[in-house]
Amino acid sequence: MAGASKAVADSRANLPFVYRQYGAEQLKQVLYKMYLIRRFEEGAEECYTRGLIHGTMHLSIGQEASAMGICMPLTEDDQITSTHRGHGHCIAKGAEVKRMFAEFFGKTTGYCKGRGGSMHIADVGKGNLGANGIVGGGIPIAVGAALSSKMMKTGKVVISFFGDGANNEGAFHEALNMAAVWQLPVIFVCENNGYGMSTSTARSTAVKNIADRAAAYAMPGVIVNGNIFSEVAEASHKAVERARAGEGPTLIESKTYRHRGHSKSDRNRYRTKEEIEDWMSNRDPITLFENELREFGFIDDKGIEAIRNAVAQEIADGIEFAKASPSPDVSETGNYVYTELA
Amino acid sequence: MPVEVILPKVDMDMATGQISRWFAAEGAQVKKGDVLFEIETDKAAMEIDAPASGVLRDVTGKEGVDIPVGAAVAWIYAEGEAYGDKAPISPLVGEMSAKPTEGGAVPPAAGSQAPPSGLPAISPTRGEIGQSLTAGRATPLARRLAREAGLKIDEIKGSGPRGRVVRADVEAALEKSSVAFAQPTAEITSPASAEVPPAPSPKPMSDDQVLKLFEQGSYELVPHDNMRKTIARRLVEAKSTIPHFYLTLDCELDALLALRTQLNAAAPVKKTEKGEAPAYKLSVNDMVIKAMAMALKAVPDANASWTDSAMVKHKHADVGVAVSIPGGLITPIIRKAEEKTLSTISNEMKDLASRARSRKLKPEEYQGGTTAVSNLGMFGIKDFAAVINPPHATILAVGAGEERAVVRNGEIRIATVMSVTLSTDHRAVDGALGAELLGAFKRLIENPMGMLV
Amino acid sequence: MDAMVRELSYAQAIQEAMAIAMDMDERVFLMGEDIGVYGGAFQVTGDLVDRYGADRVLDTPISELGGAGVAVGAAVTGMRPIFEFQFSDFATLAMEQIVNQAAKMRFMLGGEVSVPLVMRFPAGSGTGAAAQHSQSFEAWLGHVPGLKVIQPATPYDAKGMLLAAVADPDPVMIFEHKLLYKMKGPVPEGYYTVPIGKADIRREGRDLTIVATSIMVQKALDAAAVLEAEGIDVEVVDLRTIRPMDKQTVIDSVKKTSRLMCVYEAVKTLGIGAEVSAMIAESEAFDYLDAPIVRLGGAETPIPYNPELEKATVPQVPDIIGAARDLVKGVR
């Protein structure tokens, strides 16, 4: 919204949405963050492989444009609920990777002080109400947050991220219905990566597009290519404007793909190598965005190299921070179950 | 069906027993009535007969191990009966555990603990000295109150369902025993009795605390047998709950010694397996027993036992006589001693003492009694005070007869003198009454012809 | 000056508490099915919608899961919702949000949020509503760390504990026995709270402690009156809070009486009675027990429709009297 001068804007009149909407620095920052998400996931994966992180994790490599595009128009006050595949959302909403790594390492400096881990990563200060281990669990919570916004007239918009699997949960339908009935400032973002664990949307979902569900709840249903940052951001802009205007919710279906398996235990038996290879080589969201930035003159190879190096440094620093941080004391196991009375 | 051989209850306050010896081995042919094994209880050894004829199998009751009363210790299979075909639960065990015994002992847990499969149960050895792990049914509260009061829960009669000992039973037992004297009942029944200082502990120092006072290797540890435990428990109980007081006087023995010589000389000769022997040989102690019995007859108020609700006044003088035996002492009783002749007393005493030393006394031969005599004269002890053996109200401690200078009518002469000290339970026998009793005793000792009429 | 005390029904007391809470704090609002113009299935919200408007007395679609989630979301973002389930049985539909979200959110987020949520559950049998509308699930929820679970047994406690629940920063589940709604009792005007986590000795006695919950408190008191005539002096402890349980009050009572009976309507096994019994067995009160612990709970069946069968499936006053008699007189 801010940044681009009128002259520059005119010269970009035929460019896709974000290149008209944002200045070079902002767009470079988006590239930086998309790399940050990618490298964070890779770093987490490596730490996991080395046995530094326990439990499991669900990596969002391949979905970076979706997370960044949706969060692009949000202010720090706006809120999101996220999913088990939520590292990207967390970074996109402003979290620091060092505290995310610390959480994955189970350290007290982590966002949840080591109590939540990957699946419950949150950053309440930046408006991330938390990832969720229950498919569809965050959707009604987002509606509740939007109800708060409406009742307290804070003007906040709430995004609810969820995957294609969640669209078959009852909570999805109940939440969308209530949001529409009460015209709440909430945006439902289905990141459709094609598979609920191993089951493809074709095998699990009666409608062709999840956005088609919107019709049942009298709200706009928008389909975007989730691997193209500009498309995602544009849809989000419109939905946010609509929400802030009190016109109610929107359902955005962001069609994308996860390069990795569902979780660390996935043996990838339900999709072909060719399919994965196609998405990685031809439709990688970072490559697509990088190419556009270069093509439209927002960045050169040197600039890209600089971003990559800076990201690598931030990731390395983040892992070091996590390693060096203290673990919680076992005597504190009972903390945070209830609100401590001052 | 094979017949279960159990560890029977042979003593009043017996919850467990030890088999000291088996007379038949695994696989042996036994006849009904054959002696199978010998039980060592707190006070006696008892031979147990085979309940059936057949082959002895599954001898699981080990020697020297505490076994709960009623637990199976072996099985007897009929000739030709298939091995392993056991009865599920012995009716004998069930019956034993079902009804509380007359003496007020709680039926031991053995009945309810008998494994339903009929497999013989072996009790674990006692974990802590003086504390039974195999006590009968009792509520936690009853157990705690009994523990605090130093009472054994398995000696308390339970009034609850299936003989369960409840608080009221412990309180009743507490009142009965004179523990109440040491700890007011009101405090015990108070729910806040946790804060009340506990009853004087019979064991002020732990085992470890005691052992720490001695250099390691400078001693050896001899585990207590049942008799030692019983003696220790009963004496602590007696000395800490009975208000003792003591009366001492000297008796001149010369007349008695002369009479004894005469009587022994007059003893008819009896033929025995070992040749000829006099029909009796009186000891001074036999005469002391008789004198004590007759003194009680003369002062019947002193022939009493204390209970909280009433004074038990005895019609006969049953005199317990402390007999030292290896590992302890036991007090067999001469019943109705006031009615018995000296020779009867003497012979009875010899038999009792001999069987006491081989631990063959039957419970009824050492339980009860209305007084006791303890004589350490043979060790040259001049005078001592004995601990009352409840339910007695008195005990007479007898010292050695020795020549002493005595003054009579202004003249010094030599006499054989014996000091005796009467310990009395002050609740039952006051000072004057005790003095009267002791006076009567002295008169009989010094005028011994009185014992012959 | 003491607040004016009137006789109010349990339902009126709850309604008054909700009105006071909404007067005092504009973040407080009610949501639930048919709580608006209908007044709630049991007329607990009554005419509150007229006084506070449809925005603060919010009728939800019949969407227990979604509705519960909305309440959770509103609670973590600054509101103080009071969510009414039409019947406690419908908690089954919302378990995900209650157990996985509301109870755990503060913990999972390392203390970064609180969930000041109140949920009300009309519970229990006796209305002929049969198997799916008569259940008592308090022990289910009592099993979940992060939740607080209360069961007020009187109009006074219903108001005071609801106000305490609204003031509480954590999710509080209130189980209200449907048969109590019409029960009348003294209720002071104005604001007061009855603390969560504190049991109440409703009757002092020497011979037997009856730990009762909800409607069983009154039944235990009725039984105690009969037993008194027989010389059996019963102490009745109203547990009031299932989680966090007031252990000390129960322990102290059992230490005094040496006998314990637990009476509750929910299915007997694996319930509150098991918890209280085990807690006592583990506690210093164990050494004060002079009789076995007795539980009187619901039958191991769904709640039947037939009124006689329905009564037979939950403890009634004569059952309590009989069990107490057996316990004190040593038959058990």
What structural keywords apply?
heterotrimer; B: 453 residues; alpha+beta; Dihydrolipoamide Transferase; Chloramphenicol Acetyltransferase; four-stranded antiparallel β-sheet; 13 helices; 28% helix; globular; C: 332 residues; alpha/beta; Rossmann fold; 2 domains; seven-stranded mixed β-sheet; 14 strands; 20% strand
Describe the protein's architecture and organization.
Chain A has 342 residues and is α/β, with parallel strands linked by helices. Helices cover 44% and strands 9% of the residues of chain A. Chain A has a domain at 6-22 and 58-86 and 114-300: 3-Layer(aba) Sandwich (Rossmann fold), CATH 3.40.50.970. In chain A, the strands form 2 sheets. Chain A has a 5-stranded parallel β-sheet, sandwiched between helices. In chain A, β2 (158-163), α8 (170-181) and β3 (186-192) form a beta-alpha-beta unit. In chain A, α4 runs parallel beside α10. Chain B folds into 3 domains: 3-113, RNA polymerase II/Efflux pump adaptor protein, barrel-sandwich hybrid domain (OB fold (Dihydrolipoamide Acetyltransferase, E2P)); 140-230, E3-binding domain (Dihydrolipoamide Transferase); 242-451, Chloramphenicol Acetyltransferase. Chain B has a 6-stranded mixed β-sheet with strand order 9-20-19-18-14-17. In chain B, strands 1-8-6-3 form a 4-stranded antiparallel β-sheet, with no helix packed on it. Chain C has 2 domains: 5-188, Thiamin diphosphate (ThDP)-binding fold, Pyr/PP domains (Rossmann fold); 200-327, Rossmann fold (3-Layer(aba) Sandwich), CATH 3.40.50.920. The longest helix of chain C is centred in the N-terminal third of the chain and has 15 residues, at 10-24. Chains in contact: A-C, B-C.
How is the secondary structure organized here?
The complex is a heterotrimer of chains A (342), B (453) and C (332).
Chain A: H1 6-11, H2 17-21, H3 24-49, H4 64-71, E1 79-81, H5 87-92, H6 97-104, H7 138-152, E2 158-163, H8 170-181, E3 186-192, E4 195-196, E5 199-200, H9 201-204, E6 221-225, H10 229-244, E7 250-255, H11 273-282, H12 285-295, H13 301-324
Parallel strand pairs in A: 1-2, 2-3, 3-7, 6-7
Antiparallel strand pairs in A: 4-5
Chain B: E1 3-6, E2 16-22, E3 29-30, E4 35-40, E5 45-49, E6 54-57, E7 66-68, E8 72-77, H1 91-98, H2 110-113, H3 140-149, H4 167-176, H5 179-182, H6 185-189, H7 207-212, H8 226-241, E9 244-252, H9 254-265, E10 269-272, E11 275-278, H10 284-298, E12 304-306, E13 311-313, E14 319-321, E15 323-325, E16 328-330, E17 333-334, H11 342-357, H12 363-366, E18 371-375, E19 394-408, E20 411-425, H13 431-446
Chain C: E1 5-9, H1 10-24, E2 28-32, H2 48-52, E3 57-59, H3 64-76, E4 80-84, H4 91-102, H5 105-108, E5 118-123, H6 138-142, E6 148-150, H7 155-167, E7 172-177, E8 184-188, E9 200-203, E10 208-212, H8 215-229, E11 234-238, E12 241-243, H9 247-257, E13 260-267, H10 272-282, E14 294-298, H11 307-312, H12 317-328
Parallel strand pairs in C: 2-3, 2-4, 4-5, 5-7, 6-7, 10-11, 10-13, 13-14
Antiparallel strand pairs in C: 1-8, 6-12, 9-11
Helix pairs in contact in C: 1-7, 3-4, 8-12
